[in-house]
Amino acid sequence: MSTFHDLHPGPDGTINLRVPLRGHQILDTPMLNKGSAFSEEERRDLGLLGLLPPHIATLEEQLTRTYENYCQKTTDLERYLFLTGLQDRNEVLFYCLLHEHITEMLPIIYTPIVGAASQHYSHIYRRPRGLYIAYPDAANIEQMLRNIPYSEIRVIVVTDGERILGLGDLGIGGMGIPIGKLALYTLCAGIHPATTLPITLDVGTNNQSLLDDPLYLGWRHPRVRGAEYAAFIEQFVAAVMRVFPDVILQWEDFAKQNAATLLDRYRDRLCTFNDDIQGTGAVTLAGLLAACDVAGVPLHQQRIVMYGAGSSVHGISDQIVAAMVDEGLTPDAARAQIWLVDSRGLVHAGRTDLSDEPFKVAYAQPANCTDEWVRAEDASGPFSLTEIVANVRPSILIGAAAQPGAFTEALVREMARHVQRPIIFPISNPTSKSEAIPADLLTWTDGRALIATGSPYTPVFYDNRLITIGQCNNVFIFPGVGLGILASGAQRVTDGMFVAAARALSTLSPARHDPHASLYPAQTEVRHASRHVALAVAHEAQRAGVAAACAAEELAQRVDALMWEPRYARLLPA
Ligand SMILES: NC(=O)c1ccc[n+]([C@@H]2O[C@H](COP(=O)([O-])OP(=O)(O)OC[C@H]3O[C@@H](n4cnc5c(N)ncnc54)[C@H](O)[C@@H]3O)[C@@H](O)[C@H]2O)c1
Ligand SMILES: O=C(O)C[C@H](O)C(=O)O
Ligand SMILES: [Mn+2]
């Protein structure tokens, strides 16, 4: 069972796999099951005779049947359940179907519908996947890690469910996210599914409606905090390092008070990164660099307002500063061009509530920066976002506060008065949390805005043109980063690897060749983009000395060899 991922095609391109299982055991193993596509020999030699309808289907026939079924579903949640069911039954067919219909199905297995599935997790639950590590079982984590069906795990995505997209604390329901992210590792970067492991650390939930829900599947307890939480995480990481010493550990959708702390605590101890901070930083920088190119104004001359000052803005700000420094600014001069806005308004040094957030302190504008600012009529209290925009006159506006509709018409029109090509990225997820809708942004800026969104949007018809909206989502980064780490054998994940990823992705922006095109590649290009990102990450890992050097051709070969294609192996009895 441990060698699923070690499949090398023979001279005729066929992959032979000897399996110690027979009959129903094979049909019940999604990594082995081919459904109606088992050949005559396989049926005879593996105890499958009579267990399947007589016709031996081709993969194409299976895809037709499966897609036909999919199309009969009438709600997105049913589509999600259908695809999850397929994943739990036949993984090759699942990934083949996703490859064929990626634009249609990515929003189902990932953002935004994975958000709805996570909200309803305890009501739609069918089968377990991955590991559920609850706080009361802290003493058994190592045993749990050894209970999983595969023994050669290379990538773990872990959440504690506290900040699932912009939907808040979803407790055990957060499991939808690591499952979805790891499906994308396979779909977008070819990481073999049997080498991935989704994990939810169930430390309770403070979501009262979940605690009150009789069907809730998690540990019914308020969230464990403080020293107990830290000790539990430490036990988890230590167990992971014992059982899977070479694994990549990706932290996902932790609340901001834990996200940065855990990253700082563990980044020098194992191969680990935080996707919401670092992955989001990189994907946003990639789109901004392309947008700056279209606007004809380099990044270091842009004035940037960030709405939200949590994990994602932390990562985005740090990446922007790194890129501005590459363009010749000092770090201080770069930070001076970034204005953060959190739930209490502008982040400035005169505030007394920043001391436990070092990231905000580093980006705080001078205490007196608003002394000369003009107030809106009748305004009092902290400056509103519209007032901040009116006074700062930003050329870039990023939204990552999960406050739907926060980029109002008045605000956007104000911004567009001062800049020829306003760059506006409402990146909050899912769609229901977006700060603005692309069609509105185009209307309010007379089509001048350069837009990207966190969740996918259909193209907008504006001024007799169909405008494709690029998706500024870390899906364009983390699968390639993981692939690059595995291919290079990197021991640690550096910030430089994310800047390299951003620059690599940015070169693939369709807008670089056609100023009317999207700032990000289409979803159909994501596998190509991941490969490109992986190579850049692997080279940077070598340059930084966290991976052993090798020739560029060898690195490319290793990347390609790791990229699994979903197709059936020929199963032989062991
Ligand atoms: N597109 C992507 O790839 C991507 C990646 C990561 C996060 N996100 C999305 O970004 C959003 C934020 O994620 P995060 O990890 O930064 O969350 P977070 O909880 O770490 O930070 C949220 C921030 O928003 C601020 N905020 C809350 N209410 C506010 C208000 N009314 N006005 C101003 N600021 C307010 C908070 O003070 C905090 O600074 C989520 O919707 C998430 O789904 C998107
Ligand atoms: O999950 C996503 O779509 C992106 C991001 O990681 C988020 O938390 O919103
Ligand atoms: Mn996330």
TrEMBL record:
Gene3D superfamilies: Malic enzyme, N-terminal domain, NAD(P)-binding Rossmann-like Domain. CDD domains: NAD_bind_1_malic_enz (cd05312). It comes from Oscillochloris trichoides DG-6. GO terms for molecular function: malic enzyme activity; malolactic enzyme activity; manganese ion binding; NAD binding; oxidoreductase activity, acting on the CH-OH group of donors, NAD or NADP as acceptor. PANTHER family: MALIC ENZYME-RELATED, NAD-DEPENDENT MALIC ENZYME, MITOCHONDRIAL. Its cofactor is Mg(2+); Mn(2+); NAD(+). This is Malolactic enzyme. Residues 87-267 form the Malic enzyme N-terminal domain. Homodimer. InterPro entries: Aminoacid_DH-like_N_sf, Malic_enzyme_CS, Malic_N_dom, Malic_N_dom_sf, Malic_NAD-bd, Malic_OxRdtase, NAD(P)-bd_dom_sf. Residues 277-542 form the Malic enzyme NAD-binding domain. A divalent metal cation binds at E252, D253, D276. It is an enzyme of class 4 (lyase). Divalent metal cations. Prefers magnesium or manganese. It comes from the Bacteria. (S)-malate binds at R163, N429, N473. Its EC number is 4.1.1.101. The active site is at Y110, K181. It catalyses: (S)-malate + H(+) = (S)-lactate + CO2. The lineage of its organism: Bacteria, Bacillati, Chloroflexota, Chloroflexia, Chloroflexales. GO terms for biological process: malate metabolic process; malolactic fermentation.
